[in-house]
Specification:
Layout lengths: L1 E5 L4 H11 L7 E6 L6 H11 L3 E4 L5 H9 L6 E4 L6 H6 L1 H21 L5 E7 L11 E3 L4 E3 L16 H21 L3 E6 L2 E2 L11 H10 L4 E4 L5 E3 L1 E2 H13 L1 H4 L3 E4 L6 E3 H12 L5 E4 L8 E2 L4 H7 L7 H14 L1 H4 L6
Parallel strand pairs: 1-2, 1-4, 2-3, 4-5, 5-8, 8-13, 9-12, 10-15, 11-16
Antiparallel strand pairs: 6-7, 11-14
Helix pairs in contact: 1-2, 3-5, 5-6, 7-10, 7-12
The chain binds nicotinamide-adenine-dinucleotide.
Nicotinamide-adenine-dinucleotide (NAD) binds next to helix 1, helix 5 and strand 5.
Length: about 350
């Protein structure tokens, strides 16, 4: 089976490549396409190519000609996992054109390259829970450490209204709809995963994106963390290998999954507030974390907990890694690689 991972040098991408290349029972050929614009991506791809038989093509999804000729070379591809993106809300606010050209136009380029070349691999698109906006209409109460739903809300399901908020929300959300629609109109089999916060090894997290890794890195480097808002915001965090198992299950059930949209996150059992998360790191690290507060960021959700029922009912997926176990593994990877990670965090 031939798999192309677009954005495969990033955090989720490198873990995805490793997952398929580690499968002894099935024969996977993995090709990564990435422009390595994300700090840390070059380290990730160096690590991947040093440890696995993997092909790497340096390319930008904004460049249609280059992308099309790359895909034409791989007409026989079975699966494309599209993870390339401008990933930070803050960057999207500062530079909405770049965000648009990468996330929406770049995704459109992939779809058009497939349509123009009559290619129909199974396409997985990594969307985001940000497509649901700030969810202000959901009543919640404030406890000492977190926000909680006041009504019996079993997490956010795919039937929640879309409310594309921030340029990042708009570009990712519009691309999510294009992918869905190319499945309907042009018969390109595609599935959309609306992902909650993902964490794990190979995540070069910064204040603007990848907050779990960023907080671990900051605590190990003794940097001050800024919390935007009260810190009681709740997220259902999902360990990266669990996400990839869902991709794998979707590939195995592609006829059933094509055209579907799935919310995916750690669910209620793996929900944690920023303040609670800081406490967990303090316990692992044995030292206090220094932080201050600033104003809320635009569109920030007080609570996002994914309702994973559709994935459970349709392909039997559920999160398997508890956040205590996952957090320890993510922490260990960062600690072991702090020497190279440090280079991205010059004072
Ligand atoms: N990590 C999360 O918590 C999370 C949550 C929801 C959705 N997502 C989505 O999942 C996907 C992967 O996220 P990630 O955390 O691995 O991010 P990442 O930044 O680590 O990886 C993205 C990769 O895309 C590459 N890239 C960026 N612009 C490109 C371009 N124009 N052409 C080619 N490559 C380009 C980057 O170099 C990077 O390697 C993204 O689409 C993101 O929006 C991630």
């Amino acid at each position: 089976m031939k798999i192309i991972i677009i954005g495969g040098a990033g955090f989720i991408g490198v873990n995805t490549a490793q997952f398929f290349l580690n499968k002894q029972d099935e024969n996977y050929e993995v090709i990564v396409y990435d422009n390595c614009s994300r700090p840390g991506s070059q380290d990730n791809i160096d690590w991947l190519t040093n440890n696995y038989q993997v092909k790497f093509e340096h390319g930008d999804i904004r460049n249609y000609e280059k992308l099309e000729s790359f895909l034409q070379e791989h007409q026989d591809v079975d699966v494309i996992i599209h993870l390339a993106a401008q990933v930070a809300v803050t960057t999207s606010v500062k530079n909405p054109r770049m965000d648009f050209e990468t996330n929406l136009s770049g995704t459109f380029n992939i779809l058009e390259a497939l349509r123009n070349n009559e290619m129909a691999p199974f396409l997985i698109y990594a969307s985001t829970n940000k497509v649901y906006g700030p969810l202000e209409e959901l009543p919640c109460k404030e406890t000492d450490t977190r926000y909680e739903f006041t009504e019996n809300v079993q997490g956010i399901s795919e039937t929640m209204n879309l409310d594309l908020y921030s340029p990042y929300g708009c570009s990712k959300g519009a691309a999510d709809q294009y992918v869905r629609d190319y499945n309907r109109i042009y018969d390109i089999p595609a599935v959309v995963f609306r992902q909650s916060c993902i964490y794990g090894p190979h995540q070069y997290g910064f204040e603007d994106q990848g907050w779990i890794a960023w907080m671990i890195i900051a605590s190990l480097l003794r940097r001050k963390i800024t919390i935007y808002g009260t810190g009681k915001q709740v997220r259902d965090i999902l360990y990266v290998s669990d996400l990839i198992k869902a991709y794998d299950q979707a590939i195995k059930n592609k006829d059933k999954c094509r055209g579907r949209i799935f919310n995916i996150g750690g669910g209620p059992d793996n929900s944690i507030s920023l303040l609670e998360f800081i406490k967990s790191i303090e316990e692992i690290n044995g030292t206090p974390v220094d932080y201050n507060h600033e104003d809320w960021r635009p569109g920030d959700q007080k609570i996002f907990i994914s309702n994973n029922s559709r994935l459970l009912n349709e392909i039997g997926w559920f999160p398997q890694t508890s956040y205590t176990k996952g957090l320890q593994q993510a922490y260990n990877w960062i600690k072991d690689n702090l020497g190279s990670i440090r280079n991205y965090f010059a004072e």
